[in-house]
Write a structure and sequence with these properties.
It contains six helices and ten strands. With 237 residues, the chain is α+β, with helices and mostly antiparallel strands. The radius of gyration is 18 Å and the shape is globular.
Length: 237
């Protein structure tokens, strides 16, 4: 399960956890290891005094209603979320780790999309992006999230309370690293996007925590020219 703390301590704990994971995922980067060690030690000292401020752990999402961007909580646009086991998910979506794909992506993008790595928080392209537009799959350009559902989660990654089309995503039960989480994959490309939690804002109450490395951002002023004009209506908050 994702362990969380209240207030400032929660944010510091998340930073420490992801910095350590990034260190582990990039063992050959000696300088990065040193910098991350110093940063993690500093953050740990800040969070230590708040360690007793535990709040309820996030629970796996069994079922919830989905809403289209701009809809109220009373206007259901989806249905129940379906969470697959890893074995079941392999029959729904799969990503082929080809040399062609490896050449198309940067090393970090390949690590995230193909190897399910996690990029560092607060040091990625879109965590603090406030422009209007849509976020699409880095591999094949499938529209995934609209800026109208992006919100400030304080985690250091792009966070959305709902996707453009839930059927474009596959949710997978994930027990890696001793945690109980829900992985989010792109159904068409099979790429790893991030994870889903149930501590988001209304109306959905969901938080799609997504790696910037798995996304391309199409600003509103370029959407029509790049073939995404039909999604402009989703940008109004």
């Amino acid at each position: 399960m994702e362990t969380r703390f209240g207030g400032k301590a929660r944010l510091e704990y998340i930073k420490i956890t992801m910095l350590v994971k990034y260190w582990r995922d990039h063992p050959t980067r000696a300088l990065s290891r040193f910098v991350l060690f110093v940063a993690a030690a500093t953050l740990a000292s800040c969070a230590a005094g708040k360690a007793g401020e535990r709040v309820a752990e996030a629970k796996p999402i069994q079922a919830t209603e989905l809403y289209a961007p701009g809809q109220s909580a009373g206007a259901s646009a989806g249905g129940n979320l379906v969470i697959y086991s890893k074995e079941q998910a392999a029959t729904v979506c799969y990503i082929q780790p080809t040399e062609e794909l490896k050449n198309k992506l940067s090393p970090e993008e390949y690590a995230v999309l193909v190897q399910a790595a996690t990029e560092p928080p607060f040091a990625n392209a879109y965590w603090d992006n406030h422009r209007a537009g849509i976020y699409v799959d880095k591999i094949d350009g499938t529209p995934l999230f609209a800026s109208s559902t992006k919100f400030e989660s304080g985690t250091g990654w792009p966070s959305f309370w709902n996707p453009i089309d839930a059927s474009a995503l596959v949710l997978v039960d994930d027990h890696s690293f001793g945690m109980n989480r829900i992985e989010v994959r792109a159904k068409k490309s099979g790429g790893h996007l991030g994870h889903l939690f149930d501590d988001g804002p209304k109306p959905s109450g969901l938080r799609y925590c997504i790696n910037s490395a798995s996304l391309d951002f199409i600003p509103a002023e370029e959407m029509a020219a790049r073939g995404y004009g039909e999604y402009l209506g989703l940008l109004a908050k």
